From TrEMBL:
The protein's name: Cysteine proteinase 1, mitochondrial
Native species: Aspergillus caelatus
Cellular localization per UniProt: Mitochondrion; Cytoplasm
GO MF entries: cysteine-type aminopeptidase activity; cysteine-type endopeptidase activity
Single GO BP term: response to toxic substance
Taxonomic path: Eukaryota, Fungi, Dikarya, Ascomycota, Pezizomycotina
Region (Disordered): 1-53
Active site, per annotation: 128, 426, 447
EC number: 3.4.22.40
Pfam families found in the cross-reference section: Peptidase_C1_2 (PF03051)
Enzyme class: hydrolase
Subunit structure: Homohexamer. Binds to nucleic acids. Binds single-stranded DNA and RNA with higher affinity than double-stranded DNA.
Primary localization class, coarse: mitochondrion
InterPro entries xref list: Papain-like_cys_pep_sf (IPR038765), Pept_cys_AS (IPR000169), Pept_his_AS (IPR025660), Peptidase_C1B (IPR004134)
Known role: Has aminopeptidase activity, shortening substrate peptides sequentially by 1 amino acid. Has bleomycin hydrolase activity, which can protect the cell from the toxic effects of bleomycin. Has homocysteine-thiolactonase activity, protecting the cell against homocysteine toxicity. The normal physiological role of the enzyme is unknown, but it is not essential for the viability of yeast cells. Has aminopeptidase activity, shortening substrate peptides sequentially by 1 amino acid. Has bleomycin hydrolase activity, which can protect the cell from the toxic effects of bleomycin. Has homocysteine-thiolactonase activity, protecting the cell against homocysteine toxicity. Acts as a repressor in the GAL4 regulatory system, but this does not require either the peptidase or nucleic acid-binding activities.
Amino acid sequence: MGSNNSKLAPTSKKSNEKPACATTATMKLKQIASGGGNLDTHDEHEAPPPYNAEDRARSLAIPQLKDWEELLLSSDKNRLAILSFATNPYSQVLTNQSAVQAVDRPVFNVKIPLEGAPITNQRSSGRCWLFAATNVFRVPLMKKYNLKEFELSQAYLFYWDKTEKANWFMEKIIETADEDLSSRLVQKLLEDPVTDGGQWDMVANLVGKYGLVPHDIYTDNFSAQNSAKMNWLVAVKLREHALTLRQLAQSQPERLARQKDEFLKEIHSLVTIMLGPPPSPKEAFHWEYYDADGKFQEVYDSPQGFAKQASAQLARGDVDPRRMLSLVNDPRNEYDRLLTVDKLGNVVGGRPITYVNVDMKTIKAAAIAMLRAGHPVFFGCDVGKFYDAKLGVMDQWLLDLSLGFNTTLRMDKAQRLNTGESSMTHAMVLTGVHVEKGQPVRWRVQNSWGEAVGDKGWFVMADEWMDEFTYQVVVDSRFVSKEVRDILKQKPKALPRWDPMGVLA
C-alpha cells in the first residue's frame, strides 16, 4: 500500500509516465532544438539500446557537456526555470496549489475532544520525541486537574536521557571492545553517543524510572533549547572515554568498573552544569497553578507519583500505558514480524526497542480507532519530504518537479529506506482524521515547532503522504487485532545498529 512506486511522481495523479533513459532524453532535447516535440512526451515502448562496457564513455567530455547545455537552453521553459530559481527557492516556485487546496482544510469528522494546549516549541534541539510523548501524557493530566493549558517538562526527561545514554554508550563500548575500532558497529556507536533523538520505548523507560514533572517545576534553559554545544562537549568526552574503556576491557578488566564510574561522574557533572540540577525522582515537589475555573490549586507529589497519576488517568479512559505498542511500516522486512535494533536504547535494563511491523492499512486502522476513542496518537515520520512549514501542509504532490526540472522521483518506500533517502526523522501527534466512505483522506497533526509555523502550529497531512513517509504509530494494543498482539510473542528479528529503522526521531 505504502510502497506503490507510482505515488511519488509529483506531476499529475493520472500520470503513468516513466522516466526516460539518458539516450532518449538527449533525443528529445534535440527534437526540441529542431522545433518539434517537447519534453513532456515519451514513447513508453522506447528502450535504451544495448551496449558493451568498452563502448561506454568513462569520463566527461567537454564538447558533450557543451552540447547538453545548448540543448537544455533551447527550451523556453528551461530558461524560465533558470531565471525563476536564481532568485527564489524552487520549493516555492513549484508549489502545486491544487495539492495545497486539497488538504489545507482544517475540518475533520474524527477529532479528539481535548487536544492539549499550548502548542509547544522544541527550539534548536532534536527533542521532538520527548515533546510528542509529553503532549500525549499531558492530556489525561489536564483532565484530572481541570486545566485549559498545561505543559510537562521536556527538559526533565532530556536531562535523564543524556545521563542514561552516556551509561548505555559506555556499556556498548565495553561489549564491543574485541571488535576493531574501525568496524562499522563501533564507528556507528561513536558517531553520535548522546543524540537528542529517541524512540517511544526509550521515553517509556525514562518515565517509568524518573517520572514526570510540570514544566513550571523544571523549565527549559539555554542548553535545553540550543543543545548543539552541549552535545558536542559530551560527545567528545565520551569518545575519549571510549578509547580508555576499550583498552582496559582488553588488558585490565579489573579496572573497568571504577574507571567507568569516574567517567560517568564527569558526564553527570557536565550535563548538570549545562541543564541545571533536576528534581529528585522520589522527592515531592510543590506545584501551584490556577485551574480552568480560575481557582488556585496546589499539588505536592514526587515525579514518579505524578507520572503514576497520568497513567491512572489514562487507564480510566481504557488506555493503559503498559499496553502501548509501536506499530511500524517497513516494507523491506516481512509484515506481521517483530523487529528490534541491535544495541539501540538508553536505559540499561529497561525495555528494548520493539517494533511490530505491519502494513499501512493496519497502522491507519489502529490510529483511527485510538482517535475515535478520544486519545492522541504518537507517530514517527520523515517530515522533511514534500512539506511546507509555512502552510502547514504535508503532501507528496506538493511540488511539481516535472514542471521545473523535467524529472520525477520514482523510488518506492522500501527503496528510499535502502538507499538512505528516507528514515524516521521526526515525531509528532495525531489528534484528528477526516474519513470519507470509510477511508482516511487527511490527518490533523500537532507539531512542536511553535505557533509561527503551519496553522498556529498545526499541520494537515495528506493520507497518501502518510502512506509514503509515516513509519510508526503508537497505540494501545486493544485497538489492534489478536493476531497483531500475538506478534509480540515472537523472538524479534534484530536489525543492525546502522539500519534506517535505527535512526532516532
